[in-house]
Amino acid sequence: MAEAAAALGQFDFAGDDHVVPFQVEGLDVRGRAVQLGPMLDAILERHHYPAPVARLLAEVVVLTVLLGTSLKFDGKFTVQTKGDGPVDLLVADFSTPENVRAYARFDQALLNKAIESGETEPEQLLGKGVLAFTIDQGKFSQPYQGIVALDGTTLEEIAGVYFRQSEQIPTRVRLAAAELFDRDDAGKPRHRWRAGGLVAQFLPEAPERMRQPDLHGGDGDTGSRPHGEDDAWVEARSLVETIDADELTDPLVGTERLLFRLFHERGVRVYEPRAVFDRCSCSRDKIKGVLKGFSAEEIEASQENGEIAVTCEFCSTTYRFEPAELQPAE
């Protein structure tokens, strides 16, 4: 069934934790935008991440949500970084139609050193390594994985390079995360995380219009215009690049309002929003199934105080098992 479109003002704003698809017919651009609030806050606060780590993971969650909600089939979309910096692993996955989970791994000593020396930019915390995008359609198909280098540039610039290498579609990605300090309804101080992002893609009816410049400089390159680039995409990309990071995270600037600010002169249309939720896919049965594959020696080595405890890295839920539960049925 086709999605219903509406001009701004014809229905209520989507609000936090809802991805808003949009189309700018005058520029042959389609995309998605989102602001994450309570869902993201729950993911980050569960692990009590230091602020620089939380901000990085928030950007990865936004990127995962923006791209994962574009899947046209049942499956899972995963974004993962592996680097040699203080934050050596970030991973977030989106399971259709609406579930998100994420976690980060970092070296506390190296992170403290980086903070003391003021080296807390995302590219400094991640170091050199790779950013992987994985699409898994289930057990009857092979996962697809695209990999780009962590090369000292921002996550949004690296994501742009991925699109240019894998899909050959002119794409601009914007990501931002922020801490909010305010007071709750009782007047008590409150700390919250918010993040937002937007992905815009040039999709004209005539494929020959989708000419791309070479990869040098990435989509974030603001230098001279590449030879042969379409006027409509030049305009669209320039508009997207005017977005201030605060606009992407400001609770008073809703997603639809931001899109209107950017594209109203070109006839932006927004579509029915898609809600996303902080939901982990772990379960007692799944973990029990894994443990049942252990040898007797491995079961013995995994015990502590007469039981086996397994904690999910994503949601921090701990599952406890008696060794007898894991013995094969006679």
From TrEMBL:
Record key words, sorted: Chaperone, Cytoplasm, Disulfide bond, Redox-active center, Zinc
InterPro entries registered for this protein in UniProt: Heat_shock_Hsp33 (IPR000397), Heat_shock_Hsp33_C (IPR016154), Heat_shock_Hsp33_N (IPR016153), Hsp33_helix_hairpin_bin_dom_sf (IPR023212)
Entry coiled-coil feature ranges: none
Region (Disordered): 206-228
CDD domains per record: Hsp33 (cd00498)
SUPFAM superfamilies given in the database record: Hsp33 domain (SSF64397), HSP33 redox switch-like (SSF118352)
A Pfam family of this chain: HSP33
Record-linked NCBIfam families: PRK01402.1
Protein name: Hsp33 family molecular chaperone
Native source organism of the sequence: Rhizobium beringeri
